[in-house]
Every structure is written in structure tokens, then in C-alpha cells.
Design a protein that fits this description.
alpha/beta, Alkaline Phosphatase, subunit A, nine-stranded mixed β-sheet
């Protein structure tokens, strides 16, 4: 009797394990999985599912509850055009490739098969709405359709800002705008409208889709309908705790926030007044709430159409963002505030609101989506799939590398290490922060005698993993990929 009982227990457990395994490993064998690929320009991971935040983003919070949230995801270069080209090609930036916002995939790596092209070649309908690549016509053969809203890129609606933006002496209007308008008056409302229209059209097609939606806020200028500004009490908004530039940090690590200085009313040098700095935070928060509402509309329609059951959702910001961190604004540095990004991945039947502390970098997204869709990963891709993390398992890789200008950073479990090099690869400045004990990155340990062995070890690890062609001119690296 005892033996029969043991056999029955073993039999039931074996069946249960097989069923669980089948649910996880046959994602690509069920109804073809669609991809909803949501990019949000300049979105930093200051959201409630990343820790207590003043920002109100109920729709993103709800998405996180059914997704895997990556607490330590990092872009490979904290500037728009280059970051997007790197992510969409699966290639690391180098000293001579993917450098700034002007980067075009077609100019620098024209023969590389991009992420959307891989899906198109495998039978997916591919649509790019809004800002996916920095340049709308970049990699245009990868898309069945490319659409962007018409209008001036700064999308001003108030008379004052429109006039300032046309004034040759002012270049641009104010870096923010609060207008009594509907959601669809600004670009992101119209991008959401287009995404909803596309979902309705794609619903009845037998062909799987790769639908990309690139929302433009909270990028400067911080323009949003007044009701989203009204969601916040301006008196409750405070400057960040690291609103300081410690002398122990090399001066080369700081920048003058040039992207912001181009706007009307912003001083060309020196600190912003506290009043303006707090206004900037208020505007950023309002823009995040505005874009959250637009994403919510798209996700509601996805569910209403029943497409949520077979659509993988990837939500990402193209890089981090400084909101007064180290008295800087925008991105363009190797502080974590510039490099660390929001990354949320929902896979029907697999993700259930997990949070992972494992380190991921954006070149890992390309091979991950290929694996989830059952598509062969192109040989040029330098990242590694993180599907194992979606299954709450471990993976061997647990580091990220990011660069900006002469600075290159290695992110590990314990440290964030940066070094500045020229074409010879020899460091001329260094920065080391204890990731766990100094998250605000105020105490540079790189020149401390007790940390020299750690610095040397991290430097070797950085050089070993920054890519075989990192120091080579673009013409040579192009021929190798």
C-alpha cells in the first residue's frame, strides 16, 4: 500500500512538472506571438514600481504587475539616436560608431539586419509609429509602414512659445508648456490614436505583427495638457538629494546641460534658480503622467481586442535622465542617472509581476525577442538573451557596459566603474562608486589606495568586454559586422 501511494504521488508531481514546463517552453509554438514595442523618450526609472515616487503613472504600474520589471537595466549609450541604433541593431557603441543623436543606422552599419528587419523577414507585419529610430526614414526597408505626426518637433501649442520658437534670436521657446488642450492636441495623443487604429486593423490579420510605438514625452520641452500639471502639488516637489557636485568626482564627468541651455529663459551658464529647477521637475512629472495615460489607452484597446493574450509587450526608455542629479539636466554622462533605464517585459503565460535585480543591457533585447518568437538570432548580435530571467532563473552574464564620448562604464553587482580614454585605450581619469552603499554616487573611490586592486580588476573586465572592434575606426568595424 505504501509503495502504491508513493507511486501515485510521484506520478502526479511528474505530470504537474511537465505541464508547468510546457507552459514556459512553448511560447512560440502556440498562437503566433505579436510584439508591441513601446519606446518612451527620456523616461527615467522614477516610477512607483521602481521604488516610492511622486510620479503618478497608474497604467505603467498596472503593466508592471503582469510583467517582469528589470531593476538594473542600462542603455549602452545615453544619447537618443545612438542608443536607439545600438538597441535596434544589437551592436555595442564603439569609440567611432553610434556616437550622438545624429546617428543613423543606414549610414554607419548599412548591411546589418536590424531587429524589425529580422521580424519582417520572418513573416511579421512591421509598423513604426512615432519616434523609434531618431530619424524617421532610417532603416526604412525594415518597416511595412512608417508614420510620424506632422508638426514642429518641439510641438508647442501656446502662442507665446510658438512665437519664441520662430524668433531667430531665441532659437526655441520655454523648456515647458502647460496648455488647456485635449490629449490628442500634442503628438503623443496622436501616436496613441494611430497605435489603436493599427491594432484594430491588425486584429483580423492572420499575420503576426511587430508594432512599434515611440512616444516623445517626457523629452524636452516639457509640454503637457494642463490637467496633468494639476495632478501635482508644486510645493511638495523637492530637488534631488544628490543636487551637488563633489570634488572627489573628476570634473570631466560633469557637463553644462547644453541641451537644456538652448531653451528660452534658461541661463547659459551656472546653476538654475531653485524656482526654475523645481518647475523643470514639475514639468517632467506632468509629461510622464501624460504619456502614461496615452500608453494606458493603447493597452486597454489591446485587451479589448483580445490581443493581450498573444502579444509580448516591451516597454523601454531610450536612456536615463538627470533631473538635477549632480546639478545636471538631461543625459550625456556615465552616472547611473543617465545610464539606468526603465525596462518592462510582459510575456503572456509567463510573467506575473516579478522584479529582477539581475543586470541587463539594451543589446540584450534583440536576442531575447528572437528567442521568445522562435526566430534564429543573427550572428552579428553582441547581446545575450535574458529569457532565463523572465523564467525567474539565473543567467551567466551579469554586467552592462555603457559609454558616452570618451567615458566608458562597467556596471557590476557591486560597482559602477567609469574610465576616460582616448584612441589608445589608456585611462586618463577614473570614477568608481559602490552601487549598494552609495546609490546617489557621491563618493568616488577610484583614487583611494584601498580600492586600487578593485579598479585594476574592473578595468580589465571592462576592456575584455567592450567589444573586439571598440577602438577601431568606423570603416574597419563596418566591414567586420
Amino acid at each position: 500500500m505504501k509503495n502504491i501511494l508513493l507511486f501515485l504521488i510521484f506520478f502526479v508531481l511528474n505530470i504537474s512538472c511537465k505541464e508547468e514546463k510546457k507552459e514556459i517552453t512553448t511560447i512560440s509554438e502556440k498562437v503566433p506571438m505579436n510584439i508591441l514595442f513601446i519606446a518612451v523618450d527620456d523616461l527615467r526609472p522614477e516610477l512607483n514600481f521602481y521604488g516610492a515616487s511622486q510620479i503618478k503613472s497608474p497604467n505603467l504600474d498596472e503593466l508592471a504587475n503582469t510583467s517582469t520589471v528589470f531593476q538594473r537595466a542600462y542603455c549602452n549609450i545615453p544619447v537618443c539616436g545612438a542608443s536607439r541604433a545600438s538597441l535596434l541593431t544589437g551592436l555595442r557603441p564603439t569609440r567611432h560608431r553610434f556616437l550622438d543623436f545624429k546617428t543613423k543606422k543606414d549610414d554607419e552599419v548599412p548591411n546589418i539586419v536590424s531587429l524589425p528587419m529580422t521580424f519582417k523577414q520572418n513573416g511579421f507585419t512591421t509598423i513604426s509609429n512615432g519616434k523609434i529610430y531618431h530619424h524617421a526614414n532610417d532603416d526604412n526597408k525594415a518597416w511595412d509602414e512608417i508614420w510620424q505626426p506632422d508638426g514642429n518637433i518641439r510641438d508647442y501649442l501656446t502662442t507665446e512659445n510658438i512665437q519664441l520658437n520662430l524668433d531667430e534670436d531665441a532659437i526655441r521657446g520655454y523648456p515647458y508648456e502647460m496648455a488647456e488642450v485635449s490629449d490628442s492636441s500634442y503628438f503623443d495623443g496622436r501616436i496613441a490614436n494611430k497605435g489603436i487604429e493599427d491594432l484594430r486593423k491588425l486584429k483580423n490579420k492572420k499575420q503576426a505583427f511587430f508594432l512599434a510605438l515611440g512616444f516623445m514625452k517626457p523629452h524636452l520641452p516639457f509640454n503637457a495638457p494642463a490637467k496633468y500639471w494639476d495632478m501635482y502639488d508644486s510645493q511638495a516637489i523637492k530637488l534631488p538629494d544628490n543636487y551637488i557636485q563633489p570634488e572627489s568626482t573628476p570634473s570631466v564627468a560633469y557637463h553644462n546641460s547644453g541641451e537644456l541651455r538652448a531653451y528660452y529663459g534658461v541661463p547659459k551658464e551656472g546653476d538654475l534658480s531653485n524656482e526654475m529647477a523645481l518647475k523643470m521637475l514639475h514639468g517632467y512629472y506632468a509629461c510622464v503622467s501624460y504619456v502614461d495615460a496615452q500608453i494606458g489607452r493603447v493597452l486597454d484597446e489591446l485587451k479589448n481586442l483580445g490581443l493581450d493574450k498573444n502579444t509580448i509587450i516591451v516597454l523601454w526608455g531610450d536612456h536615463g535622465y538627470n533631473l538635477g542629479d549632480h546639478k545636471m539636466w538631461c543625459k550625456h554622462s556615465t552616472f547611473s542617472s543617465s545610464m539606468r533605464t526603465p525596462l518592462v517585459v510582459k510575456v503572456p503565460g509567463l510573467t506575473k509581476g516579478e522584479i529582477t535585480q539581475e543586470i541587463t543591457e539594451y543589446i540584450d533585447i534583440y536576442p531575447t525577442l528572437c528567442e521568445l518568437a522562435g526566430i534564429k538570432n543573427p550572428s552579428h548580435v553582441e547581446g545575450e538573451s535574458f529569457v532565463s530571467l523572465l523564467k525567474s532563473e539565473k543567467r551567466n552574464k551579469n554586467y552592462a557596459i555603457s559609454k558616452y564620448n570618451n567615458a566608458v562604464a562597467l556596471i557590476t553587482d557591486e560597482y559602477v566603474y567609469s574610465e576616460w580614454t582616448k584612441d589608445d585605450g589608456i585611462p586618463y581619469a577614473r570614477m568608481l562608486f559602490d552601487a549598494k552603499n552609495d546609490p546617489l554616487e557621491l563618493y568616488n573611490l577610484a583614487e583611494k589606495e584601498d580600492y586600487q586592486e578593485i579598479v585594476n580588476t574592473l578595468s580589465k573586465q571592462l576592456h575584455a568586454n567592450w567589444g573586439n572592434n571598440f577602438l577601431e575606426p568606423l570603416s574597419k568595424s563596418q566591414t567586420k559586422n
